[in-house]
Amino acid sequence: MNRRDFLALSATTAAMAGLPLPLAAAGDDWAKAFRAALAEKPWLLGWLGTNEARLETPALTVDGTIPSELSGTLYRNGPAQHEVGGRRYQHWFDGDGMVQAFRIGGGKVAHLGRLVETAKLATEDKADRPVEMTFGTYLPDMRRAANADALNTANISMLHHGGELLALWEGGSAYQIEPDTLDTIGPKTWNPLTKGLPFSAHPRVDSQGTLWSFGYASSAGAIVLYRIDPAGTLVEQGIVRMERVPMVHDFVVTERQVLLVLPPLYFDRERPGAFLDRHVWDPDAGTRILIFDKDDLTKHRTVEMPAFWMFHFGNAWEDSAGKIHLDLARYDDPSLMFETLRWVMRGEYRPATTARPYRMTVDPAAGKATSEAIAEDAEAEFPRIDPRLTGLRHRRLILLGSDGSAPHPLFNAVVRVDPETGERSFYSYGPNAIAEEHVFVPRPGGTGEDDGWVLGTVLNYKAGVTRLNVFDAAGLSDGPLATASLPYALPLGLHGTFVAG
Ligand SMILES: [Fe+2]
To answer: DSSP class of residue 296?
Structure first.
């Protein structure tokens, strides 16, 4: 790739910078409103947040039996510090990131949670107030960030690759974390050309061990692609220039291809407000799919579809006829992000469009793509697969779902579905629970998608605690084999990864 292109990109990649106007009322009003609502709606506990820099429990209370072969750490990440100096952020995605480590071994579980010590956290600790304009909050005295990493909250996901543990955001650098102590080492620089460039929260490690990622640099008018070898060395970076850059949270790879699916939610530097509010939903523009060959990131084909919104894909694979099959949690539009996930921070429940599991089929040769519901009546998000099958054909998707009994906007159940037949197994945690992402963990030496466990955390807001659950993957509807309870509630998080060992 052209070195000059990358240097120019680095200089302008304050993706969330600009000259916006503040739209919102002072953050302390939101803190007051949230607390008043919490008394009425106990499920808001999930969004209360914490100002503790460290949470630790050496031995969780375990009900049931944790399989003796299950050994390793479930690392999770999510927005956790929602208030600074008593002033509250106005979007769930704004809170400073906290890494949670659940260490499992010998039938026992230990927990350690620590805030990621980002540059933003240090600035705001010192000032004792929110200083940097964030993804969804712009208070009158917030400043425009000097660069993307100045407002990096490192709060979306975790990646373990090439022996390094990374806390992922998507607007700037990944942050390197020490795996045992969870000390923050600092922003990860893959090479000098990509220093400080956006690195997504959903990189994919394919069956060859190659790590693929991307990043959208809205102000700079580009999307960056990364190819990183199994040892963690960046071997190739690509740039796709575009006039209007969409918000794009996830992507997929197959054995031979990289696909960027671009929903028509476009950055508009002329609009006022925080980064989120500077985006326009333009459904007439449709959703575009950019298809790259893995061995040549310099060019791509484009396939167009009617507009839809998504955060997450489960997986993608290519069949013998060259058609690509992608599973995703599909929304009609991004109103959930603009409405529900913002106003919940003020203690309000504003319903919006929900996600359903879909399979897309892309035919690059014909330039066509279609999509079909996997289960039309099922609400579902946070799709995960057996990580060994990334880019290959999978027959099991693990998702979060709902049984309709809970009063909150998220999920209270875990679902396992065959995306080709729609056959499902389902387990509900009941009306007092908010389930977080569940992951598949292969049994050591196990070969199939049924041979392992499903692990996931759940907030029981009635009991005021977070619990880790372990299921036999083949017997999900029988309920957990074991449940390990913390003595406290963790702030609701987003994504995680299991590291065996
Ligand atoms: Fe995500």
So the answer is: E
